Task: structure prediction
Amino acid sequence: MTEEGEQGRPAPDERRAELAEGLAAVRARIAAACAAAGRDESGITLIAVTKTFPASDVRLLAGLGLADVGENRDQEARPKAAECAGLPLTWHFVGRLQTNKARAVAGYADVVHSVDRPRLVAALSDAAVRAGRTLRCLVQVSLDEDPAGGRGGAAPGAVPEVAGAIAEAAGLELGGVMAVAPLGPDPLPAFARLAGVAEEMRRNHPDARIVSAGMSGDLEQAIACGATHLRVGTALLGGRRAIVR
Ligand SMILES: *Cc1c(COP(=O)(O)O)cnc(C)c1O
Result:
């Protein structure tokens, strides 16, 4: 039995070693997938999705050279970002976002991946202007055949409207697209569809080059389909306990 830190968590040195191991394994997967796809690793940004894990893990990851972290709930992200203020990190908000949380999120997030409707664009724009910040926004695309799939996101046909609204909004910058693959055995067709939506967006918005796709279980397929940003939780940080609400 190794020494335990506060609240039954592993001691910092032990946790640091675990995270270093996770990071090395994920980087090796990224390298192999890039080699297979004939892509350069410099085109990939790895975002550590730290939801349910403490700010101390964010610090350790930053110490290991990770520059991007992702969170999916404002009530958890806000204090964590505050605790990590001063670290050289880019904060990504990747979860469903209600308009009444836009102001809070605009206070700490650098990139919002989950913009899927014009009303949210308006709320984020207001919030960014008030905060004197620029938020990079991605249009979340729904890749579910079943629109009641419940993962959020704009239907592909609605993407140009949301993208146009972001591009014109004060305080916002259109970064590209984001998607979560629908449940199922093969994420490739969904990621290929996302690549098509991204390509079409770039026709009107050539600087919107981000394709946020790929998580612990499907990052290889996402890289094969042109993902630029991977959102990885479990493979880096370990299994999440039940979310405390
Ligand atoms: C939790 C989460 C991830 C990370 O998922 P893992 O399977 O743990 O890598 C990625 N994207 C979003 C939107 C998430 O909520």
